[in-house]
Design a protein that fits this description.
About 30% of the residues lie in helices and about 5% in strands. The chain is built from four helices and two strands; from the N terminus they run βαααβα. The longest helix has 12 residues.
């Protein structure tokens, strides 16, 4: 890859149109999955999927985010993608820590 030496780019999206999921996201560990769901609705709007996203990703709504396994944490970090009407996704390592079943059936089916 050739690294740029100068320049810039401009995106004509509002912040609400963009969802960013870093490789190791910081999630609100004291919230349950259901509370995280409610916070995402408050910030981005209702889910853009037919089913509730955390149910589709097989996350129990009563689990504390701080107690999630690495795979469950990754699924929780992907939840913001499925709320509101984002137009641009920036996702680092979206399938790290996910087992093959989760990758193929749950996440791939939603994206």
């Amino acid at each position: 890859l050739v690294k740029p030496t100068e320049g810039y780019f401009h995106l004509s999206y509002s912040l609400n149109d963009i969802r960013v999921v870093p490789e190791n996201p910081s999630l609100p560990n004291r919230l349950t999955i259901e509370e995280w769901h409610d916070l995402l609705i408050e910030n981005y709007g209702p889910p853009n999927t037919y089913l509730v996203p955390y149910q589709q990703l097989k996350l129990n709504e009563n689990l504390l985010i701080g107690n999630l396994s690495a795979g469950q944490h990754k699924k929780g970090s992907l939840l913001p993608l499925f709320y509101g009407k984002p137009r641009l996704f920036i996702i680092a390592e979206p399938i790290n820590y996910l087992d093959i079943f989760s990758m193929m059936l749950e996440v791939h089916g939603m994206l």
